Amino acid sequence: MSLREDFLWGGAISASQTEGNYLSDGRKPSNFDFLPLTKDRLKPVYKDKEINLLTDMSDLVYPSRTGIDFYHTYKEDIKLLSELGINSFRFSISWSRIFPTGEENEPNEKGLAFYDKILDELDKYNIEPIVTISHFEIPIYLVENYNGWESRKVLDLYLKFSETMMKRFSQRVKYWIPFNEMNMVLHIPFIGGGIQFSETKNNLEIQYQAGHHQLLANALTIKKGREINPNFQFGTMLAAGKTYAYTSKPEDVFAALQSDKDNLFFSDVQVFGEYPIGSKHFFEKNNIHLVMEKDDLKNLKENTVDFVSFSYYSSACTSSDVEGLETVATNGFTTIRNPYLPKSHSVWQNDPLGLRITLNQLYDRYRLPLFIVENGLGTQDELTNKQVVDYYRIDYLNEHLKQMYLAVSEDGIPLMGYLMWGIIDLTSVSEGKISKRYGVIYVDQDDEGKGSKERIKKDSFNFYKQVIETKGRYVFKEEKNNERISSFSRKNC
């Protein structure tokens, strides 16, 4: 078995990390525009405090406000992507560009026109669009006035936004992802849900209430989308990665099982249409009382997803007793360092086999087509004489793509496609730094947004191009990989 003929090879970006121009053509700020270039950007925001993230500090850098100027360079960037040979591209819509405060009755036509132009360029090069409606972004007005997704009012405003997008692009977009990594509302609540905590409330209850509103918005978007165009395909999107037990001690194995159940909570609802069986006990134990309306559970049950899309960067590891154990960063949170995984040229541990394990885990659980919509390596690159020799990224991609291919060819996993995250360098979520680079296309810009913004193909560009041309088989050409690494070693002796 090999990859399907219509396999989607491509890349992914988000509006908040690339577009910049955050006040252009009628747009107003979003939550993401208030994330400064500081180590505190992922910490919970407390609205009880006099000074918090929503206090605009003139001496701070706000990377999202600059992005990589994709708002103006989209033609050049998409042309470069066409040279790469991709047949699909995932991007997101900036809610604040369409409904600047979220409460307008009519959408901002200039914002809609911008995404029309992106779709025009993609159509020119026969690149399939995959649209994320909400990628960690909500108008700041809704954060300040409704505490983001805690309020059911925001659900209604989102539905106006999602319906507007689906009607506008009903004949141009087939694949829709209503929310990016919905499970991250539990890890980075301000980013994932526009939530401000309170020192006097049950903040875990607020997070799950926001999660319920997002789950319902996801279901109702699917319901409306199928009325607009029955050919639409809708996917969940979760931050995935199998959790390993630190040891074979039964208590550690149970801790890993529980970690996986927690991580798959939201995708379980989106796929099965109902809350997991243990959620009632969990809510009672944590004094969580979700406010629901009469048809909420019915709508969740009747409007489930068509495919399971996910991000994978690394696996996780846990123990029943984490005290004294070394931790390492992963996608939006920290995990125990796995002693069987090597330290690497990355902020997280590389686990290529973990991708194959995760693919099997998700298909065994959900029995729906899978779609890898984010995978990649975020790390420092060195630009020398307009060249980036990123052998470490090539190795990361090669080993992960190899395991992906084996999951399809040997395990029989039905996989729709593979999208490399941050295929053009962008500002990272966790650090706000462009110097934590992901792309096969280098952007000449520093963490403060300064630079020529020139686009430069990295060595990994040619590697990924060959992978796509050979429909993935290039990753098994070990002799070519050895030549590549030997060449790098000679250059850097």
Written overview of the protein:
- With 493 residues, the chain is of the alpha/beta class.
- The protein has one domain (8-491): TIM Barrel.
- Helices cover 39% and strands 14% of the residues.
- It has helices at 15-18, 63-66, 70-84, 95-98, 109-124, 140-146, 152-168, 189-193, 203-228, 250-263, 265-272, 279-285, 296-302, 352-366, 391-409, 459-469, 478-491; strands at 8-12, 45-46, 88-92, 128-134, 175-179, 196-197, 233-240, 243-245, 307-312, 316-318, 327-329, 334-336, 370-374, 415-421, 441-443, 455-457.
- The strands form five sheets. Strands 1-3-4-5-7-9-13-14 form an eight-stranded parallel barrel, surrounded by four helices. The chain has a two-stranded parallel sheet with strand order 2-6.
- Helix 9 packs across helix 13, helix 14 runs parallel beside helix 15 (391-409) and helix 15 (391-409) packs parallel to helix 16 (459-469).
- The longest helix has 26 residues, at 203-228.
- It is globular, with a radius of gyration of 22 Å.
- The two termini are 42 Å apart.
- The model is unreliable at 483-493 (pLDDT under 50).
- This is 6-phospho-beta-glucosidase.
- GO terms for molecular function: beta-glucosidase activity.
- It comes from Vagococcus carniphilus.
